[in-house]
Specification:
heterodimer; A: mainly alpha; 5 helices; 62% helix; rod-shaped; B: 205 residues; mainly alpha; Rna Polymerase Sigma Factor, Chain: A; Arc Repressor Mutant, subunit A; binds zinc ion
C-alpha cells in the first residue's frame, strides 16, 4: 500500500469502518512508515480532545413546553386566518352590494335622462312661455306654437332639437 | 419522569392514565401514538433530546439559536410523524430533519465574523477556566468550517455515528460520506494545529 492510499483510509480506519482485512493492511503500513503513523496519531489525539471537550449538552427543561405552545399557536393560526378572510369576504360583498346598487341607480338615472333627452327638447326661452332650466333639462316639455300647434324650433328629420342659444352657457 | 414546564403546559400535559407497558414502548410504537398523544411525544422527545440538541448546539455554537432550531425540528417532526417509515429509525429520521433545519438556517443567516462572545459553553460554569477556554476554542474551530462538513464532523467524529447512519440521514452514498468525513477531519485538523501552535508559542493568536 502506498502512503497516499493509506492517507485516504485513515478516517475510516479511525472510525472502525474498515474490514478486518483492510485494517491489518493499514496496521502493517503504520508499523513500517513513521510518517503515516504520526499522521494517524495526530488525528487520534485531535478526535479524543474534541470528544472530551465537546460533550453532550442538555436542552433547557422548559423547551418542550415552549414547543407545545408554539405548536398550538400554529394550529390556531389557520382558524384565525379563515375568520379574517371571512371578514374580508363579507366586507367585499357589502362593498359590491352598495356600489352595485349605486351603479344600478346611476344606470336608471342615465336611462331616464337619455329617454328625456331623446324626446323633443323644450323650447328656447325667448318667448313668453319661459321654461325653467330644470324643465328644459328634465321635463318632457316642448314648446308648441299656439297657432300652428307645432314646435317652430324643431329640425325635422334629425330628431335633434335645436339648442336654444340662450342656454349656451348651460352646458 | 415528566417535568412540567410551567402551569401553561400542565394543562396540556395532563397525565392521562398511561397504557400498561408504555414505559417499554419502542420508539416506533411511540411515534405511532405521538401525533395525537402529547405524552407519547414527550416520551419520544426525552429519548432523543440530548443527542439532537447537542448536535444543533455544536452546529451553531449558541444556546438561543440551538433552542430555536430544536423547536423548529420538533415542529417538523411532529407534523410529519405519519410519514415516518416504520422501518426507519426515529432518531436517525429526527437527526436528518435537525441537520436540514440547521444547514438551511446557516445558509440563510449572515456568516458571523467572530462568534467568540456568543459561544456560551455550558461547561464553563462547572469546570475550571482553562478547560472551558479549550472547549470554546474547539467550538470556534467547528464554526469556522463549512456547515456541511461541520455536521459530518459532529456526527461522525464527535458523536461517532456509523457511516451508514450518516449516509441515510444526509441522503448520501456511503462513499461520499467516507470522503466527506475525511475532508472534514483534515479541515478541522488544520485549524486545530494552528490553535495548538499558537498556544505553545505563547502568542495567544
Ligand atoms: Zn506511509
Amino acid at each position: 500500500m502506498r502512503c497516499h492510499e493509506v492517507r485516504l483510509e485513515i478516517s475510516a480506519f479511525l472510525d472502525g469502518e474498515l474490514s478486518p482485512c483492510a485494517v491489518s493492511e493499514l496496521e502493517d503500513h503504520f508499523e513500517a512508515c513513521a510518517e503515516c503513523r504520526s499522521e494517524v496519531e495526530s488525528f487520534r489525539v485531535m478526535d479524543a480532545e474534541f470528544r472530551r471537550r465537546l460533550g453532550a449538552v442538555e436542552p433547557d427543561p422548559a423547551l418542550f413546553a415552549r414547543f407545545l405552545e408554539a405548536r398550538d399557536r400554529k394550529r390556531d393560526h389557520p382558524a384565525w386566518w379563515r375568520l379574517a378572510w371571512a371578514g374580508v369576504g363579507v366586507a367585499a360583498m357589502l362593498m359590491v352590494a352598495v356600489f352595485g346598487a349605486r351603479i344600478q341607480e346611476k344606470r336608471v338615472e342615465a336611462a331616464i335622462l337619455e329617454q328625456i333627452d331623446s324626446k323633443p327638447r323644450p323650447a328656447p326661452v325667448t318667448n313668453v312661455f319661459a321654461v325653467s332650466r330644470f324643465e328644459q333639462k328634465h321635463a318632457p316639455f316642448e314648446y308648441r306654437d299656439s297657432l300652428s300647434g307645432r314646435n317652430p324650433f324643431r329640425v325635422e328629420g334629425t330628431g335633434q332639437n335645436v339648442r336654444p342659444v340662450a342656454q349656451g352657457g348651460d352646458r | 419522569m415528566i417535568e412540567m414546564g410551567g402551569s401553561a403546559s400542565g394543562a396540556v400535559l395532563r397525565p392521562v392514565a398511561a397504557p400498561p407497558g408504555a414505559a417499554q414502548s419502542t420508539l416506533g410504537e411511540l411515534a405511532k401514538r405521538a401525533s395525537t398523544d402529547d405524552l407519547a411525544f414527550r416520551e419520544l422527545y426525552d429519548r432523543i433530546k440530548r443527542p439532537v440538541y447537542t448536535f444543533l448546539f455544536r452546529m451553531v455554537g449558541h444556546m438561543g439559536e440551538a433552542e430555536e432550531l430544536m423547536q423548529e425540528t420538533l415542529l417538523k417532526v411532529h407534523r410529519n410523524l405519519s410519514r415516518l417509515n416504520s422501518e426507519e429509525s426515529f432518531l436517525g429520521w429526527t437527526f436528518s430533519i435537525a441537520r436540514n433545519t440547521a444547514i438551511s438556517h446557516l445558509r440563510k443567516k449572515r456568516p458571523r465574523v467572530e462568534p467568540i462572545e456568543e459561544v456560551a459553553e455550558p461547561a464553563s460554569a462547572f469546570s475550571e477556566h482553562a478547560a472551558a477556554e479549550v472547549s470554546v476554542d474547539l467550538q470556534r474551530i467547528l464554526l469556522r468550517i463549512p456547515p456541511r462538513y461541520r455536521s459530518i464532523f459532529i456526527l461522525g467524529v464527535i458523536e461517532q455515528r456509523e457511516y451508514a447512519d450518516i449516509a441515510r440521514m444526509s441522503g448520501k452514498s456511503l462513499a461520499a460520506v467516507k470522503t466527506d468525513i475525511h475532508r472534514a477531519r483534515e479541515m478541522v485538523r488544520e485549524q486545530w494545529l494552528r490553535l495548538r501552535d499558537g498556544k505553545s508559542g505563547g502568542n495567544g493568536v
